[in-house]
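User: For my dataset I need records formatted as: sequence, then structure tokens, nothing else. Please produce one.
Assistant:
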Amino acid sequence: MARYLTLSKSARLVGIKRGALQKKIQAGELITFEGMLELNELLRVYPNVEVEDSAMIERVDRFMENAWTKVAQSNSILPDAETLLARVSILSQELAVAKAEVIRYAALVDELKPRVAALEASVDEASEESVHSFKSWFLHALEGRAAEIDLPAHLLAKEAFLRVMSAHVRVMPSGNEYFVEGQDSLLEAGLRSGVSLPYGCNNASCGKCKVKLLSGKVRQVRDTGFQLTDAEVRDGIALSCCCAAVTDVVLEVGEAINSDDISTQKITAKINKVSRLKDAVIVQARLGDGDRLHFLAGQYAQVQLADGSSADCAIASCPCDDRSLEFHLSSQSNPGFWRYASEQMTAGEVLTIRGPKGDFVLNTGSSRSLIFIAIDTGFGAIKSLIEHAMALDVAETMHLYRATSSSNDVYQDNLCRAWSDALDEFKYTDLEVSSDEAGINAIVDRIVEDYSSLAQHDIYLCAHKDQLQPLGLALEKRAGAFDRRVSIEPIRVS
């Protein structure tokens, strides 16, 4: 019986990025059926898959080293007992069905063997060779089929193990996929994976996180102050912020794809840390309990300081953690704002945030490799895009190019180098050139030197306003048709 897997599950089993599988499918190296991959087709292309490749198993090894008393205090390692029991029960039912099929097939084979022998004994001389040939093929096929069944056994065991430890979620109509681990809600796991599910309060009181359950089973794990109607319950409507996946599920919900899908919000956040650089200030802030800023990677917000001054600033953090925010403030902001940020602002102060704004967002529908170009504090918006792309796990490769004004150092350089060291698919290039006209030409020359053809890449560029046109035109000329493959954004300073 053919076993079909989603792309996310397939990628997780063989230990590669989903974007790499998509590229092989587009090249015709892998054949899919209705967007799914057959297990033996996956093994044909990746024949050396080992169970030990799974990061999940490493997590379990660490879990086993800890005392059970410590485990009981953590919600992030294992699902609760009821969920585990339900998943094991489903696997047991599948195993029972599979065993019954094996018994039926074995009985059929046992009945067929003497019939073939009787047929061979009763045929005339003219047909004897044909029957003998059929018998030889039949016996050989039985032996070969047994060996073929043994081949993916370790992968089937690995896939069953992962199903017990985590639930797979597929979101329609986008087709995005993610996994729910531990006791995370559908919303928490989706946001952490970079899937922009709709929500408002995240404490089950507004109803904006409604999803429709098309298949599978979920369970409410948190109290709710919002009451679904009887008709909604019958129609499979659930609140993603307070429900966890018991089994693999398929949800129907409209995701936030562009800025029009997210309403403007006004929230407050308390500053945790202020890092002052020569021409930038990095602010890390934390939202209060129950508060979240729903935004897309690459967007910006208006930030108002304690003295009342305000400016638009890039949100330099990932939407996958919408309670911890990071802003990169530019020295080119209005004088009052910059003076307070660079001289007086301290940890513990409260920021007022209005947003999100902007259309500089990740094209999540593309599986092309990504090139990012950041000049000075343009790195803020680019950092958000990179972290979102990492969470989604869709791009096969990413390459970040950074440049600074001649008098500046590259800030957060260690972070970029850590990405490059930790991820095989991520490259980082510190161009060490100025951001004037000569530097702009050097940036484009270096990128073209690395990539003779840019047509297979999506390019994201954030720089000073006067640098955007020459950089954008040069990249457009090198990349061919503009399409949506070159996205540009000015550094926010107003």
